Amino acid sequence: xxxxxVTSSIVRLTMFFLILCTALINAERVKPRxxxxxxxEIDDLSTMVRFLLYSCxxxxxxxxxxxxxxxxxxxxxxxxxxxxGHSAKGPWFPVMxxxxxxxxxxxxKHNPDYPTAEYLTSVMRVGNENPSxxxxxxxxxxxxxxxxxxxxKNTEGEQxxxxxxxDDDPRGVHISCWGGANTVAAALWTIKNxxxxxxxxxxxxxSKAHIYCIWYQDGGxxxxxxxxxxxTIWEAYGWHKxxxxxxxxxxxxxxxxxxxxxWMKENQINNHGPLAALTPQGYVSEGDTPSWLHMIxxxxxxxxxxxxxxxxxxxxxxxxxxxxxxxxxxxxxHSYPGCHSKQAIKDDGVVQKANWRWTIAAQNxxxxxxxxxxxxxxxxxxxxxxxxxxTTVNDGPPILRLEAIPGQTVxxxxxxxxxxxxxxxxxxxxxxxxxGTYGRDVEIKDAATQKASITVPADALGKTIQVLxxxxxxxxxxxxxxxxAMIEVKSVTDINKNRLQGSMKSMVIRSSKTTxxxxxxxxxxxxxxxxxxxxxxxxxxxxxxxAILPSKANRTITYRSNGIAFIKVITxxxxxxxxxxx
Length: 582
Fold this sequence. Notes:
Elements: H1 2-6, H2 8-24, E1 33-38, H3 42-53, E2 59-65, H4 92-107, H5 117-122, E3 124-126, H6 156-165, E4 173-177, H7 182-192, H8 199-207, E5 209-214, H9 220-227, E6 232-236, H10 247-250, H11 253-256, H12 261-269, H13 273-277, H14 290-293, E7 326-328, E8 346-347, E9 350-351, H15 353-356, H16 359-372, E10 400-404, E11 409-413, E12 425-431, E13 444-445, E14 451-455, E15 464-473, E16 480-489, H17 492-501, E17 507-510, E18 519-523, E19 533-538, E20 547-549, E21 556-560, E22 565-570, E23 575-581
Parallel strand pairs: 1-2, 1-4, 2-3, 4-5, 5-6, 6-7, 10-16, 17-23
Antiparallel strand pairs: 8-9, 11-14, 12-15, 13-14, 15-16, 18-21, 19-22, 20-21, 22-23
Helix pairs in contact: 2-17, 3-4, 6-7, 7-9
């Protein structure tokens, strides 16, 4: 603690920069891009109902119908008669699009970003549904299937995935595999072996792929894992007995109560419009839904980094040296589920909690979306927006990054959180210990209030601590929103070095030649005139004396050179920090 007192002025400077950098960020939420691939199994049809009601939260870049070891021929041409209340045979997707189209005007009253049914139909493609191109169902674990050996090649689904990954949009593409990954693998193979793309373009396109597999339901996922190291792929099992057919038995009783037939009849199937009425299942058993829950605009922004955890669960990278982009949530159940091994990841020591800890909130949120199908804006509930230290996901970075030193008390402030329905808000601050490298509980003072604080443990140097604000309204149903920050625990020297070097403008200015007596002269850019306030710092954050020379064109300062320096300039319009090159 003695060192903290000695460097208190530097810590104050650090916190100034922290607050200033956070406040000056001004950006709208960037929607993630999503491609959904489905084998048309009955639970996929239920998942699609939910997917459509959240399609305003992300950009749907494609919907691909393909197969799996369980649905070997796919279902792009049938399954319409499996939709509730629909007896006619035929393809299921057009029936669902007709129902969705009829409620789009109503949904747009609540969120104008809902895509049209015509647009969604325009990005629907059929991929590989050839049963000869996938392993035998009982030949598990499923061996990697090289797409070059497929009998069916260059499908429309493959072409769409290639087109999206190679376009000019810099955003990543989150590909959720509800069935097999064979069509995705074929697209990545085509890009990897392209003669038209440069090596740099190939690497960029492959790196855009973020694939969430509801385990490997064919040989495509394992082929991607072994052969496309640029792509991120998550072989997931956390959905097992939390969202799938075993949801009523695998979840805690208080969670399972939100997935029963009674819940569905009251909140979904009855009196909630034609789309919800098509839901084919009698209880919530949507094993594929977790693959895209990270894309939902709930404030968590887990699509930025799956390992931070969210509605779709939490994976880890178990082999960062050999497979840095391969993610797992159960290291002992490779390529086929049916168990949760001793190597399954745990939250609070409990297997599956990384998934079900969010389920009640997710179901309440879904119930509100279902209400949107039939209720006017004033009659329905809409989620609040959580603020964390002055920013939300709509005007700040998706994940806050804070820096602190061991023993430092960090202020946490949810002021600025709002609710579109003017409901009363309650607050809960908590540490997601498993999703930070410190890995232990850290007490938050006044955790149930709008303003709280956390003291960084003395032994946390070099670690990260994830802190979340959870905001809940008192509407019906009660809805939640989150905002998260990763606190990076560093030394004072490292914090000041990083803060100054990586500050707002990240600009560099070059000094004129240093004189023989050791004085350095620097001319600031012209936009900083005589009304600007100037401070000069060394790399350690210490203030350096300087003199201002008269100049009509700009501000010129001189100081005794002692290595690299940083100049902070504040005007009425902006603040900038410049690194001085000698």
